[in-house]
Amino acid sequence: MKLSRRGFFKVSAGLLGLLALPKGGEAKPGRYATLIDLTKCDGCQGEPIPLCIKACREENSSRYPKPQRPIPNYWPRPFYEDWEPKKDKIDTLTPYNWIFVQKVEVEGEKLFIPRRCMHCDNPPCVRGCPFGALSKQPEGNTIIDHSICFGGAKCRDVCPWHIPQRQAGVGIYLKLMPKLAGGGVMYKCDLCDSRIKEGKIPACVEACQKRLGEKAPLLFGEREKIFTLAHKLAQEQGLYIYGEKENGGTSTLYLSKIPFDKIDAQLKQMKARFQMPVKVVNRLEREVNPVGKVVLGGAGLGALAGLVLGLISTNKKEEEEV
Amino acid sequence: MKEIKRYSGIVRFEHWIIALSGIGLIFTGLGCLPLFKRYYLTEIPGLAWTADFYTVTKLHYLLAIFFTFAVFFHFFYHLVRKDFGLFPKRGDLIKAFKTILASFGLGKEPPADKWLPEQRYAYVGIAFITAIVAITGLLKVLKNLEWIVLSPKTESTLNLMHTLFGGAFILIFFIHVFFVLAVKSNWPLLKAMFTGKVSLEYVKERHPLWYERIMAKAKNLKEENIS
After folding, report:
1. Strand A109-115 to strand A252-256: parallel, antiparallel, or no bridges (unpaired)?
2. In angstroms, rounded to a whole number, what is the distance separating the alpha carbons of residues A279 and A152?
3. What is the pLDDT of residue A2?
4. DSSP letters for A261-281
């Protein structure tokens, strides 16, 4: 086989072009979505605790961490994350509380924002977990396999909302090098994975709808229908949408009369643990994936160059062999 | 002193691209694990950027361009040329042990050809681990781009495999470097990885079978020239 220099460049360019053809960064949406209409949520006034939280805790309490004590520090750091003494806390996300209602006052209006995992379309937590403990399900939800999670909390770091929460003294890391690596297990909302796989709706949504019926702020269903409804309501009532574009798209849409940048500004001012950054980009898609295309091109080019130079040099091999 | 060519320019190019990008990939790969912050590395002046997983991953990808280029080049180049001298031969296992023991002054090295029996086993080990790291890495790139969509279980297994084989790569890297640096008889090979050449004396002493081939070939050439 003979290949001229020009021919070689043509083939290489063609190969690179082929690799660049498919569109990168387009997240594959899941089957379902949730709508959270903040114009309707009153934080369950008159109830001892918001019903979405109550239902979530009842549904998931059997999966809450049961740490072994004494818990070792995250050596060489002099601490470990332990939420067990605060397991009844319901006003924030913890390994024992996977949804909470955030209270914030913006422009004289009181808002109650149910907060939990947004279930991103291209979740950086799933893509980045070195142990493969997180996975995105076809239903669109992201789940954590507690049996293989090391509790390194990378998922919390790469999440734009820092949703997953860590409990030390529990999990597989205790069986390996508990003093040197690992930090427990990460916990967060899995959108009631086993329920939605059976065709049911998440426990929080069910509880909300039991209380308020058609006026319930939480709605769960087929993604397309939820998205169409969200846009319809937004247009009819002049509402703002959050969660459609954020982090490259999620399967949780919030509707609000007040723009979300104002809500986020207020949350920032309050130094809230969980904020609502507007139009936050998916850095994996924006910064990392374009380089990924070059990696694939590099591998292809390496194969091609190896073949061509190999064929050219085969004849000279005998001379070199000594 | 007469010198014999041992590593071609292309072999040295492959070796150093894989070695240098590999070192970078080890560092950034470890940085993709949640360890640097815990171990205060991110607080070292000039290393604050390692606290950002996205930046570290991007750098990991950039280095992977060179690494996968060289790995794929290596595979196809030597496949086409049928350079199979580094695959283990019958009886290599015992000879490899003897070579390793001799490295520490125990016994004598069995007579070797161009490649030492221990090198052939090392090559297979390094090649296998490198291939798995590179292939799982490329699959991770593809699924992150969503050009392929894996089932949740497959994606989890893939992520775990890349991490585990990355660990194996670190291990063999250190074993490789240890044997090159700690065993004096290997030093001429290190030099050859820069210059491409070894002295005839070294070949005669350590690779007598190769030496015989070189001498036979030289004799043939001489006779051909005379005739």
Report:
1. unpaired
2. 27
3. 44
4. HHHHHHHHHTT-SS---TT--
A123, A100 Cβ separation under 8 angstroms = no
The helix (run of H) or strand (run of E) holding residue A209 is helix A203-212
Indicate the pTM of the whole model.
0.89
Query: Are B146 and A126 a contacting pair, CB within 8 Å?
Result: no
Burial of residue B4 (CB within 10 Å: 0-12, 13-18, 19+) is: buried
The distance from CA A48 to its chain's CA centroid, rounded to whole angstroms, is 30
Cis amide prior to A70 (ω within 30 degrees): yes
Distance, CA of B207 to CA of B226 (rounded, Å): 29
Q: Which of residues 54-83 of A touch B (CB under 8 A)?
A: 74, 76-77
* Contact at CB, A302 and B81, closer than 8 angstroms: no
Which band of pLDDT confidence, cut at 50, 70 and 90, is reported for residue A322? very low
Phi, psi of A49 (to 5 degrees): -140, 150
With an 8 Å Cβ cutoff, is A290 touching chain B?
A: no
Cis peptide leading into residue A76 (ω within 30°): yes
The ipTM estimated for the assembled molecules is 0.92
Tokens 């703002």 appear where? Answer: A240
- Taking only the tens place, the pLDDT of each residue in A158-192 is 999 999 999 999 999 999 999 999 999 999 999 99
Average pLDDT per block of 10 residues along chain B, 227 residues long? 90 97 98 94 96 97 98 97 90 83 81 88 95 97 92 91 97 95 93 95 92 89 77
- Token pair, residue B127, equals 């090649």
The three-state secondary structure class of A219 is: strand
Helix (H, G, I), strand (E, B) or coil at A37: strand
| Amino acid in position A165 | Q
Q: Which of residues 161-200 of B touch A (CB under 8 A)?
A: 162-163
Give dist(CA A127, CA A105) in Å, integer. 35
Structure tokens at A156: 């919390």
Number of continuous H segments (helices) and E segments (strands) in chain A = 11, 10
Rounded Cα distance between B104 and A83, Å, is 54
- The residue of chain B with its CA nearest to that of A141 is B152
* B61: CB partners within 8 A, 6+ apart: A288, A291, A292, A294, A295, B141
Closest partner residue to B138 (CB to CB) among A76, A296, A317 is A296
Instruction: Verify whether the Cβ–Cβ distance B73 to A306 is below 8 Å.
Output: yes
Are the C-beta atoms of residues A140 and A123 closer than 8 Å to each other?
no
Sole residue written with tokens 């007579």: B111
